[in-house]
Give the backbone structure.
Amino acid sequence: MNVDAQIRVLIENAPQDGTTPRIIQTIAPVLKAIAGQLSHAQYYILQTLNQDWVLTTLSNRAQPDREKKAIYAFSTLEDAKASVRTPLNPNLVAVALPVTHILFQMVALENVDSTIFFDIPGNGDKGTEVKRSDLQRLIQIQLQQKLGATGSRIPPNMA
């Protein structure tokens, strides 16, 4: 599914409250721009049976007290499965999600600092990091430009 179709699905599946579809349409250029910097239209995310995304806590080698929480997005199902430390963990499943949907959900996940997109199959050492704070900043700028300063705050339960 191409990025435009992904955005249409986001809009169609959004609560038809008069606000959320309009916000998605307004921020679509941001989602498309970031998705355009990544290599794949969909990625595999590990999630629990309760559909919670698996978070990985990363620490800085130079500053061990500094941590961030990241979601790993894999370009292949095989890479997602191989990333699970305990083989065949029955409580985790790899789910294919459109890239724009991952980005959109990131906005709502307050406990997530970044998503690491692994674009090269078989290479879990190098990924493209998308910081939640950067995504939020770009979305805020887009909303302010298109909707004006009033009413441009991202609703906390939008995603």
About this structure: The radius of gyration is 16 Å. The mean pLDDT is 89. The chain has one domain: 3-58+67-147. The beta strands are 42-48, 55-59, 67-74, 92-98, 114-118, 128-131.
